[in-house]
Amino acid sequence: MADRSAPSLEDLIDAQIRATGPMSIATYMGLALSYPARGYYAEGDPLGTKGDFITAPEISQMFGELVGFFIVNCWQQLGEPASFTLLELGPGRGTLMQDALRVAAKAEGFLDSLHLQLFEANPALRLAQKQRLDQYNPYWADEIDAVAEGDPVFVVANEFFDALPIRQFVKGKDGWHERLVGLRDGKRAFGLSPTPIPESTLPEAFHGADDGTIAEIGLAAADAMQRLATRIKAQKGALIAIDYGYGTTQAGETLQGVSRHRFADVLERPGEVDLSSHVDFGALARVAAAAGLDVAPLATQRDFLGRLGIVERATMLARANPAHLEHLSAALKRLTHEDEMGTLFKAFCASAGGIEPVGFADT
Ligand code: SAH
Question: To test the ligand 1 pocket, which listed residue (45, 160, 162) has its Cβ within 8 A of the most ligand atoms?
Answer without folding.
Answer: 160
